Each structure stands twice: as structure tokens, then as C-alpha cells.
Amino acid sequence: MLLSICTLTWDGLAHTKKFVASIKKNTSVEYELVMVDNSSNDGTPDFIKSVADKFYFFPKNVGFARGFNHALTLAKGEYLLVINNDTEVPAGWFEKLKETFDRHSQAGLVYPCYTSGNKIALRYWPGWRVRLLKKFSKELPAGVAIFSKTAILRDKLGGFSEDFEVAGGEDLDLCFKAWAAGYEIYLDDRVLVKHKGGGTSKKKLPNWRELYKHNGDLFQQKWRDKLKK
Fold first, then answer.
1. In Å, how far are 37, 81, 111, 214 from 84, measured between CA atoms?
2. Domain count, the chain
3. Range of the domain at 69
4. How far apart are CA 153 and CA 80, in angstroms?
5. Which of 53, 57, 96, 228 is surrounded by the most beta carbons within 10 Å?
6. Sign of CA pseudo-dihedral 196, 200, 202, 204
7. Phi and psi at residue 73, in whole multiples of 5°?
8. CATH number for the domain harbouring residue 92
9. Distance CA 140, CA 127 (A)
10. Is the pLDDT confidence value at 199 over 80?
11. Cα dihedral 29, 145, 82, 12 sign
């Protein structure tokens, strides 16, 4: 069994180094590290070449959705982790998330908790619960880390919608696509991912407010029938 770990970078070399170190230290199964870069200029590409099993470099920032979707095209593993580069994974993360996924026959996506992000999955220490999320709920975890099978996230759901350009919305849209396809989504309190957060987009995109509003409006329009329920 092979696990594909996919991450996307846009500068943030110090965070990426900590991320890779945690993957190496705390991943106990055979894995491939797939890294896609959105035109970093802080030395990240050279680091990626030294540590990644597969990589790709975009000449400009193409956004979260397109960047991660390209990583998905390179993935060969049965199981899949899509994860931000400003994270650190804990010991036993794979075993717990896989257990949750395999225990539920309709599982499509499993989210760990994190130390920075939307409130529903925000934790300061790991817990013991595994929670089934309510279908088409407005309260959703951020796409800090998503565990699935490649055959589901990439092949059945088609990855992230690239209608959401650069600044948000694609992670929420993925949840709604999973529910619309009949899959269940779980939140696993037992796995706490250390997430730096801090809003790369907010720091580097001068018009991030307009972009977030545009994507938020797009999400509302796309799923308005489900949101009314």
C-alpha cells in the first residue's frame, strides 16, 4: 500500500522544512511526497528538489485549487493526504485517519483537527471523538488537511473546483461535492495537526478581500439549493 502526501507551496520555506521533517518523523507507512510550487522566490524550489519524490513548478501563482489538482495528477497512492505546507503532523496520524476512513463504508473525506482554522475543528489538544458531519452544513472545517482515497477525491470528485481562483472557497465546495455524491465526511479529534496559519493570501494579495467575497458569492450561488435545507 502506498500513501500519497500532496502539498502546495508559495514561499514559506521555514514552514515547509518543518512540515517535511514532521512527515519524515511521524509517517510509518510507505509514502510518496508530492510537492507543487506556486512560483516561490525564497529558495523553496531548491529545497523541494532535494526532498520531494515528485514535484512541479508553476511559473506564476495559479491558486490553491489548480495547484493541488496538479499534485493529484501526480499521485499514485491508494490513500491520499492533501495538506498545507505550514503544518506539522503528529505521531500516529496516518493510522488513526485510516482507521476512521476504513471503519465507515460511505466515508469520502476525513479531516483531522488543527491548531489554527475554522472553529469546528479548532483544538488545543487532541481528543477522542470521531464526529460525522451534518450534510450540507455551513459549519465546515478548513482545508488544512484532508484524508481520502485517490480514487475518491481525485477520480470520483474531480479534485478541487478551479472556479474558485486563488483565495478560498474550494475546500468548502469539495465538502458539498462529496455530500452531493453520497459520501460521508468525518472529523477525527484524535489527530491534531499543528497549523501555523496566518493567512498567506491575506499577506501577499492586496485585493484578498475582493477575492474572498467573489469566491464566497460563487459558493452561495453554486450551492444555494442545498444551503436552504
1. 12, 10, 13, 22
2. 1
3. 3-227
4. 8
5. 96
6. positive
7. -65, -25
8. 3.90.550.10
9. 18
10. no
11. negative
pLDDT 10s digits, 41-75: 999 999 999 999 999 999 999 989 999 999 999 99
Long-range contacts of 158-162 (CB under 8 A, 24+ apart): 159/65, 159/68, 159/69, 159/72, 160/64, 160/65, 160/68, 160/69, 161/65, 162/63, 162/65, 162/66, 162/69
Q: At what angle do helices 44-51 and 13-26 cross, to 10 degrees?
A: 20
Beta strands in the chain (DSSP E): 3-9, 31-37, 54-57, 79-83, 87-88, 107-114, 130-132, 145-149, 184-195
- At 75, list the grid cell: 499521485
**pLDDT tens-digit readout, 80-114:** 999 999 999 999 999 999 999 999 999 999 999 99
In this prediction, residue 207 carries a pLDDT of: 57
Q: At what angle do helices 208-222 and 170-180 cross, to 10 degrees?
A: 10
